[in-house]
Amino acid sequence: MKNVTDSFASLGHWPSAGSFGLNTDILATNPINLSVVFGVLIYFGKGVLTDLLDNRKQRILSTIRNSEELRRGAIEQLEKARDHLRKAEREADEYRVLGYSDIERQRVGLIQATSDSLEQVKNDKNETLRLKHQKAIHQVRQKVFQQVLEGASGTLNHCWNSELHFRTISANIGILRTMEKREKKRMN
């Protein structure tokens, strides 16, 4: 410490002009040199450092604002995507419900159509059987009438004279034609 104070004390005493020397005492000259360098740096570098820090601050703030805007945009897009997803889920549910109800309606319709078809087949079968039965009865009646007529005609031919025979045949033919007309009406 004595050397430091001696350096400052020697500053007050200047040697005579013309002599210039180098102070080799590092401990005495270093704090002075450093204080001068720091003073010059602070005085001249303060503006540059302030500008650098201000630019850095502005870039950081700009990056933060951009990040906030991007975050808000991402949140909006996320909300839109969620709304779209909810809408799609509702539509899918509606389609599913409509599909199930449509399938159920088609199933009921098919069951009803099948039931109606079976009923119609049953009715057609019964009608066909009834018509075949009536046709068979009609054919049997015609054969019986034909046989009766032939038998009656044969009997009358042997027993009666021709005029009586002719009148009886004409009367029987008229009766048979009336019966045949009634039978045709009944068939229709």
Could you write a compact summary of the structure shown?
The chain has a domain of 107 residues.
Secondary-structure element series: HHH
Bulk shape: rod-shaped
Distance between the termini: 149 Å
- Can you give the mean pLDDT? 82
Quaternary status of these chains? single chain
Largest sheet: none
Q: What structural class do the secondary elements suggest?
A: mainly alpha
Q: List how many beta strands DSSP finds.
A: 0
**Helix share bin:** over 70%
- Residues in β-strands, percent: under 5%
Spans of at least 5 consecutive residues whose pLDDT stays below 50 are: 7-17
Radius of gyration: 67 Å
Number of helices: 3
What does this molecule look like?
With 188 residues, this protein is an all-alpha fold. The chain has helices at residues 2-11, 26-159, 162-187. The chain is built from three helices and no strands. Mean pLDDT is 82; it is low at 7-17. The chain has a domain at 32-138. It is a single-pass membrane protein.
How are the secondary structure elements laid out?
Elements (H helix, E strand, L loop, with lengths): L1 H10 L14 H134 L2 H26 L1
Helix pairs in contact: 2-3
What features would you highlight for this structure?
transmembrane; plastid; mainly alpha; transport; rod-shaped; 188 residues; ion transport; 90% helix
